[in-house]
Structures are given as structure tokens and as C-alpha cells.
Design brief:
The protein is of the alpha+beta class and 388 residues long. The protein contains 13 helices and ten strands. Strands 1, 2, 3, 4, 5, 6, 7, 8, 9 and 10 form a ten-stranded mixed β-sheet that branches. A hairpin with a 2-residue loop joins strand 5 and strand 6.
Length: 388
């Protein structure tokens, strides 16, 4: 048998080819692939999502809720599907959802929305690069017109500029409708850059990405300027309810938050929260988001306060939540079912999904922070997190 993975140039997304590749993998690795080959998905529906399809990785899917969301796009009680293999995670988020619901729900706001591509242009010296920057400012409308010829939903909102050495970094900010938009803005920016190269003299060369768009890695520029959706989720929890449900007082939880802020600072963490990545990853996998975007999306800023009446205010800001309700993995059958559960399958639903995810993350934050202080963090994992 050849070492090359089998492919069919005419019809590679079929059960015949999936089985051929499973047999190939089983032979080459001496493995049994009984579970990988059991699925209800038509292989043809995976075209555009994966290559060399052999089957599915079945991740357990759980449910939390009802989670009450008081958003501008998501309003009401939601049952949130979360895909994970970490025991206690669903139980913890569900406990947090109950506390937030009993507190009146989570107020969630999408405060910014932009996806970037950041080309860099190279000149003979810094003065030429500076002059180019002035020209860009004067020609933003024409640059936008060129970029938008490639897309019906992407709109160039603005162009940030950054100077270094003889280079000018441009950070194109697009709104992208219901799509996450990385590929969309890449194509649009390419067309704009090609027009710039033909129109403006003296450019030595350019690169479509100078790495200031920070695809799939955290960056400080995202924390300050946003990437994807910038979402703020906040709640005011009655002190008595917090102590009754979580076994900790508002004062103790607030003091622990101050200590954690210092620890996060000393560690150089991209997040001052407890574990935003857990909730985001679980909802991302369930709803067909690009899982690698968790690297950016899980960056978070926690703020807490206690009022004179002893009520606990908690908020989380997600400055770079990258989500979609159209395109990519959102079109796969099981992921569409999960989006249907949230009422987020279809046009005009991306901000609704962002608000639900923001509320979900807040539920996980208050639950874990309370568990650590109440002493049931380890015991809950012992009880629910072992299967061997």
C-alpha cells in the first residue's frame, strides 16, 4: 500500500473515500477506528471545512440553563449547549447560571465590532513612510471602495496606522456581518493593497500581513482596540443570595478578586479572570466556531465591586470575541442544531450569539471563583471529574 493518503480528485467527500482513508489509517497505524467511522453527517457536507475526511471526533455535549440574558439582541432564558470532556465544567456553569438568573439575569452589551487585516508597506526611509501615511488618510474612501468590491457584507470602517523604521503598518478594520470574517477581510485588503501599489509611487514592497492583525494569538492591541466583538457582561448579585447559593460572602469574594488581580499582573496573564477559555471553547465547539480563535477570544478583563448594601457587582469584558452565525463550521449539521437551540441560526444573529456567550462566561467565572474560596473546587472534581 502506498504511503500517500488516498484521495479522489472527482469525488473526495464520499463515504467510500472516508472508509478508504480509515482503512488506510488503520493499516498504517495498527489502530481500530470503530468509533471514528460512526456518524450521521453526510461526508459531502464537510467540503470546505476539512480535507482527507475520515470521520468525526465525538466530544460529549452538555446543557446549562436556563441562563437569563438581558441583552440588546439576546433577551430571555436560554439553554446553552457546551461541548467538553472536562468533568464538573457543565455542573459549575449551570450553578453559575442559576445564581445569575436568580439575580435578575446578565446585562450584556456589544460595544465594538471589527475584524482586521494589517498589511505593512516598506519604503526607502521613515520620511517616505510618513508621507505615505498622510496619503492614506486622504484616500480612505477610495481604498474602501476598492476593498469592498470583493464582498457584499464586509465594510471598511477605518484604517489605523503605526510607524516603525522605514515601514508603515496599516490595520484595516472591517465590519463583517454574520461571518467571523478573517478570510473575507484578507481578500478585501489584498485587492485594496494591489490598488495602492499601482497608485502610489515609491513603495518598495508590501506584505498582506505584518502580524499586527494578530490572527489566533493574544495581543495587547486587541485588548485596547478590539478584534471581533467587544462584549461586556455584568450583573449585580444580592449579597444574601450569593452566600446562600455559593457559600461565600460578597466581601470575601471581592477581596479574593483584589488578590487575583495582583497575581494576574505578576504572571503577565492575558486575562484577569478565572477561566473564560473553558466556556468559550465549549460553546465554540458546539456551535461550529473556529476553535483556534479561543486563543484571542478568551482574553478577559474582570471588574468587581461591593455596594453599601453588600451586593456584589461583577463584570467581564471580552475584547476580542470572534464568533459567527454564518460560514465556516456553523453550516455543519450538528452545529446548526446547537445554533437552533440558541435561536442563533440564520442572518442577523451574530450579536445575539456574542451576548449569550458573554453571559455564559460570566456564569462560569462567578461559579469557579466561589468554588475556590468555599473549598469545593477540588472536591467537586473528585466527585464529578473522574471516570477511571
Amino acid at each position: 500500500m502506498s504511503d500517500r493518503i488516498p484521495r479522489d480528485s472527482d469525488n473526495d467527500y464520499s463515504e467510500v473515500m472516508a472508509k478508504t482513508r480509515r482503512d488506510f489509517a488503520a493499516d498504517k497505524t495498527s489502530s481500530k477506528l470503530d468509533h471514528i467511522g460512526h456518524y450521521s453527517v453526510d461526508p459531502a457536507t464537510t467540503a470546505g471545512n476539512i480535507e482527507n475526511f475520515i470521520g468525526v471526533a465525538q466530544v460529549p455535549l452538555g446543557l446549562i440553563g436556563p441562563l437569563r440574558v438581558n441583552g440588546e439582541h439576546a433577551s430571555g432564558d436560554f439553554y446553552v449547549p457546551m461541548a467538553t470532556s472536562e468533568g464538573t465544567l457543565i455542573a459549575s456553569y449551570n450553578r453559575g447560571a442559576r445564581l445569575l438568573r436568580d439575580s435578575g439575569g446578565v446585562k450584556v452589551t456589544v460595544v465594538d465590532d471589527a475584524m482586521q487585516r494589517a498589511p505593512v508597506f516598506v519604503f526607502n526611509d521613515a520620511r517616505e513612510a510618513r508621507d505615505f501615511g498622510l496619503w492614506v488618510e486622504q484616500n480612505v474612501e477610495e481604498i474602501a471602495a476598492q476593498a469592498e468590491t470583493t464582498t457584499s457584507s464586509g465594510k471598511l470602517r477605518n484604517i489605523e496606522q503605526y510607524a516603525a523604521a522605514r515601514m508603515r503598518y496599516l490595520r484595516f478594520n472591517f465590519t463583517t456581518g454574520d461571518a467571523a470574517g478573517q478570510n473575507m477581510v484578507g481578500k478585501a485588503t489584498f485587492i485594496a493593497c494591489e490598488w495602492i501599489m499601482k497608485t502610489y509611487p515609491g513603495i518598495q514592497r508590501y506584505m498582506l500581513s505584518g502580524a499586527m492583525d494578530t490572527d489566533k494569538k493574544h495581543s495587547q492591541i486587541n485588548t485596547l482596540h478590539s478584534r471581533g466583538k467587544r462584549v461586556v457582561a455584568e450583573v449585580l448579585i444580592p449579597g444574601e443570595l450569593l452566600e446562600k447559593t455559593m457559600g461565600v460572602t460578597a466581601e470575601v469574594l471581592f477581596k479574593a478578586r483584589q488578590i487575583n488581580q495582583v497575581g494576574s499582573f505578576m504572571a503577565g496573564s492575558s486575562s484577569t479572570g478565572a477561566h473564560a477559555a473553558n466556556g468559550i471553547a465549549a460553546v465554540f465547539i458546539a456551535t461550529g466556531q473556529d476553535a483556534a480563535n479561543v486563543a484571542e477570544s478568551s482574553s478577559s478583563i474582570i471588574f468587581a465591586d461591593v455596594d453599601k448594601a453588600g451586593n456584589y457587582y461583577l463584570s467581564i469584558t471580552l475584547p476580542s470575541l470572534i464568533v459567527a452565525t454564518y460560514g465556516g463550521g456553523t453550516g455543519l449539521p450538528t452545529q446548526q442544531e446547537c445554533l437552533d437551540m440558541l435561536g442563533c441560526n440564520g442572518a442577523g444573529k451574530v450579536h445575539k450569539l456574542a451576548e449569550i456567550i458573554g453571559a455564559t462566561v460570566l456564569a462560569g467565572e462567578v461559579s469557579l471563583m466561589s468554588a475556590v474560596l468555599a473549598g469545593d473546587w477540588v472536591t467537586s472534581h473528585d466527585a464529578l471529574g473522574r471516570n477511571r
